[in-house]
Amino acid sequence: MEFNNLLLDIEDHIALLTINRPKQLNALNKETIAELHQALEALQSNDEVRVLIITGSGEKSFVAGADIKEFADFSVTEGTELAAQGQATLFDYIENFSKPVIAAVNGFALGGGLELAMSAHIRIASSNAKLGLPEVTLGLIPGYGGTQRLAQLVGKGRAFEMVLSAQMIDAQRAYDTGLVNHTVEQEELLTSARKLASKIAFNSPMAINSAIKSLNAGYKDGMNGFQVEIEEFGKCFGTKDFTEGTGAFLNKRKPQF
Ligand code: CO8
Hints:
It is a single chain. This protein is of the alpha/beta class. Helix 1 (30-44) packs parallel to helix 3, helix 5 packs across helix 6 (156-165) and helix 9 (205-217) runs antiparallel to helix 10 (225-236). Strand 2 (14-19), helix 1 and strand 3 form a beta-alpha-beta unit. It contains eleven helices and ten strands. It has two domains: 6-201, 2-enoyl-CoA Hydratase, Chain A, domain 1; 205-250. It has helices spanning 30-44, 68-71, 76-95, 112-119, 146-154, 156-165, 171-176, 189-201, 205-217, 225-236, 240-250; strands at residues 6-11, 14-19, 51-56, 61-63, 101-105, 108-110, 122-126, 130-132, 169-170, 182-184. The strands form two sheets. A six-stranded mixed beta sheet has the order 1-2-3-5-7-10, with helices on both faces. It binds octanoyl-coenzyme A. The site of octanoyl-coenzyme A has 25 residues, from helix 2, helix 3 and strand 6.
């Protein structure tokens, strides 16, 4: 697959997606969002791939936000449409992806960039990362799910402070508040993300898909997370992964999923 703004590398069941607009600090323009969707769609149905890592090109920035140049003259209708389409095709799409997505945050994760990282299931940040939602300095608010996901991750009080003050936090603070799962030195970022990804890749893809659905259900309006968990738990018993996993345990061997 060829992209203008993305690099895609698949190795050992792990897909590494690199947003590649380093001169613009990997800002998300329309084309990049469309390419990410296209790549994700292809990876969804690629059975070789079990885990995704998303990162940014260069050492300075993960993603410095939505591309401000593209929406500077938008109307109310266009702004609404931009947010709705972006949420549906990228941010919600990642959160509900059937395979785990790890964001490897290698520098600035601002606005839409932090929202992208928050859509992923797991975040690892390099120690130079700076994270924030600066939209109110532009007369905007986060439009790619940031007001919702930030509060889910760090709690409502901290989310209010970050959104209203527009202040960036460093990687240590992001770790302390639960916004990222780990912080590591920049040179270790991709190795750490790959290490975690390969641990996940070893496990049952079918069970992992059920776990993603169940965990997400607790955060969706009108869904009963406990009920979804019961249903997904039950479904596992009908899968070949369950036969393999339990069979391997009982026969004292490693499972081959
Ligand atoms: N959009 C477009 N271009 C950008 C962006 C961006 N978000 N961020 C950086 N760039 C470009 C700069 O314009 C500059 O380009 P050029 O060389 O052509 O002038 C280049 O990247 C390098 O940037 P700087 O020279 O500014 O680099 P610095 O090291 O001085 O500063 C910063 C780095 C602090 C990250 C600075 O670039 C900055 O503040 N960027 C903007 C951050 C921001 O406000 N992000 C939020 C954007 S709004 C958003 O994401 C809304 C999401 C929800 C949208 C929902 C639909 C509407």
